[in-house]
Write a structure and sequence with these properties.
With 137 residues, the chain is mainly β. Helix content is 14%, strand content 37%. The radius of gyration is 15 Å and the shape is globular. It binds zinc ion.
Length: 137
């Protein structure tokens, strides 16, 4: 019997419009500081579905950093990643961002935080495809 090498599934991110709008509002509120949130949803067959947000406990933010101690997080399988803002306006993951990667996806929002200012990355800093769903997932 010959086993086919498992195809590498490209990770695709789906986010509900309500969640995206919530992220943008939160980033605008925190500007000029960075804002950080935990993404809630589910992970299935290489696809990440995001339909909720959680404000992380003990988060600390400033103009160039945003973080929270992961050790305080409950092991919740619905936590699929994080989102944070880059008030500088460049949505490129920093070394620190990749170092603090949590879950399956890291979304970075660049100012001015409009609909097209969200970018999703994987653990290695590769840009992922992201679609906005108008319906509940
Ligand atoms: Zn960052």
């Amino acid at each position: 019997m010959i086993f086919k090498k498992a195809q590498r599934v490209r990770r695709i991110i789906t986010i509900t419009r309500d969640t995206r709008d919530g992220i943008l509002t939160y980033c605008k509120m925190n500007h000029p500081n960075e804002g950080i949130l935990i993404l809630r949803g589910k992970y299935k067959n290489g696809q990440v579905f995001i339909d909720g947000l959680v404000i992380p406990p003990f988060s600390h933010t400033g103009p160039t950093f945003a973080g929270f101690p992961h050790t305080f997080l409950p092991l919740d399988p619905s936590y699929v990643g994080t989102v944070h803002s880059h008030p500088s306006g460049v949505a490129k993951p920093s070394v620190t961002d990749l170092h603090n990667f949590f879950g399956f996806v890291s979304i970075i929002v660049q100012s001015p935080y409009e609909d097209d200012d969200l970018f999703a990355y994987d653990r290695d800093g590769n840009l992922l495809e992201m679609t906005v769903s108008l319906e509940k997932i």
